[in-house]
Design goal:
Organism: Arthrobacter alpinus
Keywords: Signal
Strand content: 15-25%
CATH superfamily of the largest domain: Periplasmic binding protein-like II
CATH architecture of the largest domain: 3-Layer(aba) Sandwich
Number of strands: 13
Shape: globular
Structural class: alpha/beta
Pfam family, one: SBP_bac_3
Order of helices and strands: EHHEEEHEHEEHEEHEHEHEHHEH
InterPro entries: Solute-binding_3/MltF_N
CATH class of the largest domain: Alpha Beta
Protein name: ABC transporter substrate-binding protein
Number of domains: 2
Length: about 300
């Protein structure tokens, strides 16, 4: 799961290999991204947590973060093409806690886990839903809870539980694409009804635009993403049903990495000192906030 809007024109994902850097080594709010960790906040380096960093990361002084920046308000490009969103703010805050320069390695969503397993990136931050299937590839440090929310054109009622035969837009490789909508479609065909026609787009912007112009009947995305899209479409879209299938977001880290418990402690420190909540409130997504940073919640559920 995961991912500026410029309406009526949608911003294309043309510069996916852009890299944005934020230097947090001096423990002051970052300078390379338009997203500061929290308005007016200075987050200090936690020496005790930073001391536990794996030597490779500690010696480099850089935290390489895989991200697909096309999923607003979580992670996207601002008007200057820089990484923005509450996931970016949270990552910058983590960099400050750890005393590391954050390097956003911008690419496609489906390349993030291979980049982590290949050693190119230390972690991902792209609204990954923690699933048992994904936990076979990586470990997850859980930091947020999000549901799925459908949207339709304003005035056109769509029931996510009765969508057989409809056209539904999703962002490719998200949970909605790989699990949620296909499962609904299978339930349709098992009942002898028409399948849901799934339209897959590389970027959430494109999926939203397809709904606006009427190419599809509905779209499915994470609840904060859908609500943000609706707020940016000048009342052209509406929610379709209530949010459902609430599940944890997780930061993917290489399986068995010594960085995992350090990252967990860094997130927990931001939760405990209130910085985490300030970041979520800044973007209006505090309803999905958690009190405890956990590891591999899906496998324990």
């Amino acid at each position: 799961m995961r991912r500026t809007y410029a309406f009526p024109a949608i911003v294309a994902v043309a510069a996916l290999m852009l890299t944005g850097c934020v230097d947090n080594s001096d423990s002051t709010p970052g300078g390379g991204s338009s997203s500061s960790p929290a308005d007016g906040a200075t987050i200090k380096k936690n020496e005790a947590i930073a001391a536990e960093l794996p030597e490779k990361i500690k010696s480099s002084g850089v935290l390489n973060v895989g991200m697909a920046n096309n999923y607003p308000p979580n992670e996207f490009k601002d008007a200057n093409g820089e990484p923005a969103g509450w996931s970016v703010d949270l990552t910058n805050a983590l960099g400050q806690v750890l005393g590391l320069k954050v390097n956003f390695d911008i690419g496609t969503f489906d390349n993030i886990l291979p980049s982590i397993n290949g050693g190119k990136d230390d972690m991902g931050m792209s609204s990954f839903t923690d699933t048992v299937e994904r936990e076979k590839q990586v470990d997850f440090v859980n930091y947020y809870s999000a549901g799925i929310q459908w949207a339709s054109q304003t005035g056109k009622a769509v029931d996510p539980n009765n969508a057989c035969g409809l056209k539904v837009a999703v962002q490719a490789t998200t949970y909605e694409d790989t699990h949620e909508v296909p499962a609904k479609s299978k339930a349709c065909t098992d009942a002898g009804k028409p399948a849901i026609e799934i339209f897959k787009y590389d970027a959430q912007d494109q999926a939203t635009n397809a709904l606006i112009v009427g190419q599809v009947d509905a779209m499915s995305a994470d609840s904060p993403v859908t609500l943000y899209a609706i707020s940016k479409t000048e009342k052209k879209l509406q929610t379709a049903g209530d949010a459902f299938e609430v599940a944890p977001y997780g930061i993917p880290v290489a399986k068995g990495s010594a960085f995992t418990p350090v990252l967990q402690k860094a997130i927990q420190s931001l939760i405990d000192d209130g910085s985490y909540t300030k970041i979520l409130k800044k973007w209006g997504v505090e309803s999905g906030g958690v009190e405890t940073a956990a590891i591999n919640v899906a496998a324990k559920g």
